[in-house]
Amino acid sequence: MAARQPVPTVFRQLLGDAGVVEPGDASAAYLAERRGLFADRSVAAVVRPGSTDEVAAVLRQSATDGLAVIPQGGNTGLCGGAAPGTNTEGTIVLSLERLNTIRAVDAENFSLTAEAGCTLSAVQQAAAAVDRLFPLSYAAEADCQIGGNLATNAGGMNVLRYGNARELALGLEVVLADGQVWDGLRALRKDNSGYDLRDLFIGAEGTLGIITAATLRLYPAVRERATCIVGLDDVASAVALFARLRAESGDTITSCELMGRMPLETAIAYAPDCHEPLPAQHPWYLLVELSSSARDGDLARRLERALAESRDGVGDYRIASNADQATDFWRLRNRIPEAQKSAGASIKNDISVPIADMPAFLQAASEAVIARCEGVRICAFGHIGDGNIHFNLTQPAGMEPSVFLAQWERLTQAVHDVVMGFRGSFAAEHGVGQLKPGEVARLKDPVEQSLMRSLKAALDPDNRLNPGKVVPPGPS
């Protein structure tokens, strides 16, 4: 019997030299993980198919050889969903970066078809070239890829107005575990001809199939924006102001971001291009942006009127008079995650609760973590308009980072327990990956867990697609 060929050699025969990344420095970027939680792991090969047919060939070969497959987009995720797991023997990383073609743009149908490896910014630019908007947007858009956005059901800044990635997808092309290709690239708004298979794969993080292309929903281009930052006494005032602004603005709010004083101070302290936005300091801030595709939306006037008539809990405010001022406001919000690293070790929580429950959640969660770690600094900020807050924790002043990070599990569980008390989610927009399957097992309804395992077994019976991610193991 002939000796079995090394895994890289097998795939080089299938894909050519461009389709396989050599071990060592060349493959390091594919094995890294943005938060450094799942580092120092290797795989049998890193492959880069250049077409859907080649993705199918890789999965067929992997099935024959019994290899596990980790699909990877831009590798910008925060929960380890695209990183190798603990058992990397017999595992390959399948990068989709070479599937980077915009296949079609249909301005009249307000749709666009892109391959999975197209960066989010490339999709935005293709839409803008025909005077259309693809509204998915967040900080990593120059690096993240649309396949990964869909696989994680990415959120971002504009969810309030346009929805998560799921709401922006009309159809998908997916390669299944056995190498079959499902062509669901339909540009339809209405299709009740059977199960909605598309929604099985969006948010599944590559555990049920690998998305290779998507037909996406476009919108009219934005003609006018109005942006403001408001100082507030408390979170209840932020919730009330959001409701008022939404009604008074004709429901034109695109983004509504809450920032506590602590994260704002962190951005100002550690990011040299960030400055105090208002004359006085406030416990909380609301960053609001309105947008319209109309040329005469009169958004700034609507915003001014609604703010002027809002009294309780609302301090001073500023409405951006030009695009540069609006950019300054947004820079404060966008610099927080990076600035938090300079403030010390951090434990990050990506949660959601009903908007009306946000004040009570923040109080209860703050009390829970302070009771367990005296002096912990609470860095709460995020998309309050859709109920998603990043309830991050920064180490107490003077505490060693390792001592603080050793409390990760008990502090995180305390936060998640409070979240579940409000019937919220402990994985609002960053997914589950390999960071949170234990919390899925601990907190999700047993029937829901059973359904997840049944779907996984039906579509990936050998558990080769991104094993160890999202789906908790069954009861022993």
From TrEMBL:
Keywords of this entry: FAD, Flavoprotein
MF-aspect GO terms: catalytic activity; FAD binding
Superkingdom of the organism of origin: Bacteria
Biological process annotations from GO: respiratory electron transport chain
Family: Belongs to the FAD-binding oxidoreductase/transferase type 4 family.
PANTHER family tied to this protein: BLL6224 PROTEIN, D-2-HYDROXYGLUTARATE DEHYDROGENASE, MITOCHONDRIAL
Protein name: FAD/FMN-containing dehydrogenase
